[in-house]
């Protein structure tokens, strides 16, 4: 799948239940957020590869809501492939998410749209 809008491709993969990220054929480096060229070299040889979905919490914060709306966490996740993405960790209390915590990606649907979240591994 190749188009001029990598974000659209990424969302299509998520809708299919697949976590795909890009990798430069020439450097072997993985890239996230989807783009048309590798940030370091400018190489336009990016290909889509399936990510393992394993990662580690790099940073986290809790967004506190006024009751009865529940609070939630926002986390930076380092995938095993070496890219960092922003998401949330579900399945535990927002305050229980810790830096260094191993997590696993999961694709959920909210408002009929695919969303990548993580849960404790």
Can you describe this structure in just a few lines?
It contains one helix and eight strands; from the N terminus they run αββββββββ.
Describe this structure in words.
With 121 residues, the chain is mainly beta. The protein folds into two domains: 1-50, no CATH class; 52-121, OB fold (Dihydrolipoamide Acetyltransferase, E2P) (Beta Barrel), CATH 2.40.50. The protein has one helix and eight strands, in the order H-E-E-E-E-E-E-E-E. It has one helix at 6-15; strands at residues 20-24, 30-31, 46-50, 54-63, 72-79, 84-87, 102-110, 113-120.
Summarize the SSE layout with pairings:
Elements: H1 6-15, E1 20-24, E2 30-31, E3 46-50, E4 54-63, E5 72-79, E6 84-87, E7 102-110, E8 113-120
Antiparallel strand pairs: 1-2, 1-3, 4-5, 4-7, 5-6, 7-8
């Amino acid at each position: 799948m190749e188009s001029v809008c990598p974000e659209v491709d990424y969302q299509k993969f998520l809708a299919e239940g697949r976590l795909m990220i890009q990798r430069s054929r020439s450097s072997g480096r993985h890239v996230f957020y989807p783009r048309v060229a590798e940030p370091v070299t400018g190489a336009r040889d990016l290909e889509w590869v399936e990510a393992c979905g394993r990662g580690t919490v790099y940073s986290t914060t809790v967004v506190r809501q006024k009751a009865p709306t529940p609070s939630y966490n926002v986390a930076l996740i380092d995938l095993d492939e070496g890219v960092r993405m922003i998401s949330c960790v579900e399945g535990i209390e927002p305050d229980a998410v810790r830096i260094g915590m191993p997590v696993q990606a999961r694709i959920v649907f909210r408002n009929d749209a695919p969303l990548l979240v993580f849960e404790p591994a």
